[in-house]
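Before the break, one more example. Copy the sequence into your notebook; we will annotate it together after we see the structure.
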Amino acid sequence: MGEKILSVKNLSFSYNSKYILDNMSFEISKGSFISVVGPNGAGKSTLVNIISKVLKDFKGSVSIEGKDLKLMTSRELAQNMAVVPQYTNPSFGFTVEEMVMMGRHPYISRFGGERPEDYRVVREVMEKTSITQFASRRFTQLSGGEKQRVVIAQALAQETPILLLDEPTSHLDINFQIELMNLFSRLNREEGKTIVGVFHDINLAIQNSSMIMLLKDGSIFGFDEPEKIINRQNLKSVFHSDIFVGKNPVTQKIYVSPVFDPGYAFKQSGPEKEKKLIRVHIIGGGGAASPVLNLLYHHGYQLSCGVVNTFDTDMDTCQMLDIPYVIEAPFSPISLISQNRNIEFIKESDLVILPELEFGNGNFSNLVSVKEALRLNKKVIVMDGVDISKRDHTGGKAKILYEKILSGGAVPVKEKSKLLQCMEV
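Here is what the structure looks like once it is written out:
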């Protein structure tokens, strides 16, 4: 960690006897890009309003480069920190250039006018934010994204080491969101500005941040590098929602997405919850198992899956839902070791499901494993909506064994919507 530029100690804030922030402490180093994320009501905006001195009646201390915030004048604060809010709606029809020049207010004496230095800075930040062509236009005539660029230019005109962002992209289209986040990233990377931003979009925050602060109920749930703090369990604890955390194959940075309930049927309640004790093993591969995994996961079943190859969609689904699985090397046939592990899962299960897999010589042993499940007196359900002849790429060998499995007691199910009903019989 480098030299500290912002320090918060034992910060608490209450409204009508209700604590909005509760004993919060953290430090931020110069040149950091910090993203503050959390659900509505977690205290994100309150934290921004305290740091920017909008709210003053707080307990604890906030210091900027060693200076007590409560002792700083408005001019001193404006020379150290610039704020980019969500919305700016000036009462008068200022031009874009006039709006940006307002950012020079901390440097213009009370009875003096704008200096050549002020005009130089305004020109530079307007070029940096690509709004020079709007200089003489009225601010009210601009689109939402253009207005936000003007607001950022105004903040940059303050020439502060800290840029405080209060959900600056939340009302913008995705193209403007990306454009502005790229701008903030360049300011951080190339000019060394310390950026502290509140964001609703976790993915936008992750892609640019050096650190993520997770807030929950007015306290810091976690504060660390994105790869260390953004995980499924933490997000589930903070947002009370099941969220998948994966890795972007292009940027190699983590990303999040919701885990959706497919909604084939209502979740059972009452005595039916006992079915969650049933252990189900699903034969995987080629993405065929993913819809079944997702369906049964959202209905509370204990699941396992195998055999899946690295880079297989079924492997991604298992990782997303935290389901144990048997893994095989990419583009490789199922080895004897993997087949034995698959059978071990089958032995530990109460029910085995065979989705509509495509069968080749490389994964033919999956059918052998299902045949073994019948021998072990396991209930076997076969998803049989697509004719096996269309999925058999072994010259008929898979079809023969498939039909033996059906004649040996496996239960065929033609439609996925009927799967749950069949499992309960």
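The longest helix spans residues 174-191. Confidence is low (pLDDT under 50) at residues 264-275. Try to locate both features in your own notes.
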